[in-house]
């Protein structure tokens, strides 16, 4: 189906655009009362994410209600370990929890490489339903977590301020670490390829915990696995978003990806110099959306002026926060459209 609005894909490929495309990480979420109504109907986050009809419904909401230039499938990066045989629970106010963890070769041997259709078919069905619902209005983004970020959750069993258990493995048992990272990578490649077949027009890799690694560790335990994914996904553009990895921007820019996402701590001018041949995405501090409408417009104008309107996808430097007002979010989106045209 031909896209009516293909700004995101043209920007990702480095083609000329009439204005900068804009979307937001976590745009399908708790900022919208319409999302909260569906979430309540589902009964739990995991039930919502694993029910294709409901996941498709909340994926479409920001397109209908906020006017973004792309939809991103409603799911979670932790469906990959679940597909590998390590189920998780979502505790209210606490986040994801894995009842079992992977910390030995014996634990690792119990895991499988995820089979997308059998183990993660509900995500693929949600993508197919969403594509039907979008009817070509905007592109659909698929995604997965970067192998190191998934490794953190699988070894720790939950979120952490330090991820010291995960990092301990890197130093104390690098052989185990590489074996687990490779298994995650193999699962992720198969999963993302299946998302593309189901209808994803672009895929994004989220390395949420990249910033806890030293530059040397990042080159050893994260970049090689992200590189495998980028090299394998040739059908659609790939975005790499490594939060906190300001030290690895130049190396990320050399990956076989189309777009590099920036967080708000990454200087825009410096990033353009380090990554001259890629489209950049980002990077407004989400907390700007707590300020006045006038200040939001001023900050967006400053950001667009620094990035320029070409080879650029406007976004926040991280996901939108659940207590933000939808009108402030709309102000951000409308300001990007106004100042980049």
Question: Which short descriptors sum up this protein?
Answer:
341 residues; alpha/beta; two-stranded antiparallel ribbon; 17 helices; 9 strands; globular
Distance between the termini: 26 Å
Computed CA radius of gyration, to the nearest angstrom: 19 Å
- Series of secondary-structure elements, N-terminal to C-terminal: HHHHEHEEHHHEHHHEHHEHEHEHEH
Mean pLDDT across all amino acids: 97
Give a nutshell description of this structure.
This protein is an alpha/beta fold and 341 residues long. It has helices at 7-12, 33-42, 45-49, 52-65, 79-83, 105-109, 116-119, 121-134, 147-156, 164-172, 174-198, 215-221, 223-232, 249-253, 268-274, 293-307, 326-340, and strands at 71-72, 89-91, 95-97, 140-145, 202-207, 238-242, 259-261, 279-284, 312-316. It is built from 17 helices and nine strands.
